[in-house]
Recover the amino acids of this structure.
């Protein structure tokens, strides 16, 4: 999560909402990183999780990320939750909850929807105060 927070800093430096993500391989090594690049790239889908999943799949040479863990500073949105299910990651770890748009336990729970045949394990609240404060500080800055 500390590494994901460092990624979030890179987003903020470029004027993007500070969200960072990393993907860990089944043996726990770092496979890929990503941070929000919506403003930097003008791409509405350039969320930290999407970029990290794409890079992890490229690193492994396949789309199936079975056994992998995605760690992200903010609860995934519906788009990212969908991508996480599609990627077949085993585990999603996130810091701050997103009561307004979260899709991993807050507003929706897409990743653990019983109607889907792949449901990653969800671990929430890891370094939550730091993750939440990073976002609050960004929106406080005029
Ligand atoms: Zn998202």
């Amino acid at each position: 999560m500390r590494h994901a927070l460092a990624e979030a800093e890179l987003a903020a430096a470029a004027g993007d909402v500070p969200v960072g993500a990393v993907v860990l391989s089944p043996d726990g090594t770092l496979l890929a990183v990503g941070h929000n690049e919506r403003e930097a790239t003008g791409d509405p889908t350039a969320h930290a999780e999407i970029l990290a999943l794409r890079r992890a799949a490229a690193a492994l040479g396949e789309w199936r990320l079975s056994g992998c863990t995605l760690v992200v500073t903010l609860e995934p949105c519906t788009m990212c939750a969908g991508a996480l299910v599609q990627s077949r990651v085993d585990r999603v770890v996130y810091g701050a909850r997103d009561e307004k748009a979260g899709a991993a336990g807050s507003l929706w729970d897409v990743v653990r929807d019983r109607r889907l045949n792949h449901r990653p394990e969800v671990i929430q609240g890891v370094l939550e105060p730091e993750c939440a404060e990073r976002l609050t500080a960004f929106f406080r800055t005029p």
